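Slide 14.
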Amino acid sequence: MSGFAGHVLALAGGVGGAKLIRGLALQLAPAQLTAAVNTADDFNYLGLDICPDLDSVTYALAGLNDEKRGWGLRDETWRFMAAVERLGGESWFSLGDQDLATHVLRTARLREGASLTEVTGELTRALGISVCVAPMCDQPVRTLVDTGEGQLAFQHYFVARRCEPVVQAFHYRGAQAAQVSTPLADALVRPDLAVVVICPSNPFISIDPMLALPGLRARLEHLPVPVIAVSPIVGGDAIKGPAAKMLRELGLPVSAAGIAQHYGPLLDGYVIDRSDARLAGSLAPLPVHATNTLMRNDGDRADLAGAVLRFAEHVI
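Slide 15: predicted structure.
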């Protein structure tokens, strides 16, 4: 435990986000952490409501995630998908046999009229998770990707096409009609809120959909507490996923500096990998802290979380 005083609101999506959420949970009491999670990756597949980022964060917090793949549950089997393929069904997105239970129960509860926030709370509590895992909103928001081959729904771009088409722009359909979820809104007005952490998630597909929700970016910029991002780019490349490719195709520097440039005045502090420490001067006057940001195990995750929290105490 870090001894950090106050509440932490963390914005997350993807594997990097789930890892740092796990690290923060190792450093904080459960009541000190709200994990606000991207839901613009969500989609309906085989009649089921799939929430990849919510599940990645949930499984990481429960200690059930597959460390090698980076997503899904460990010790997974795939007989369901094999049967779907044998019967001629869609099989471009793999659902594990254990993972399927999450999707079936979520879909059933949503059909009964429960909100995504309510269902997420039920699933996390069933797995013994005391941290508040908050969908960014309860209304459907979907990331659309403009590419050289036309506009693609995010999962078709990301999974079916393996991120191969050249990215031109992103759109977050439904964002302007959505509202931040109640637990996210509550975290923003907590009197003990001490820091907002933007996890090392892909900014375009994990964080920007949240910032597209009406008023959220402005509220973050005007908070009396620091907003600190952790760079998902290390040494000019992404640890996992297409962030570097997207930066390049959108004409931004493929570096930690490119991520800071993208977030702009939203940030009050920035954590980069020690291998990129030479970039700190070019980011002035933004306060920068260089440390190890590679999270290979729980020790690394807790160490990075601790470094972020200590840095936050010195950022005004």
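Speaker note: The chain has twelve helices and 14 strands.
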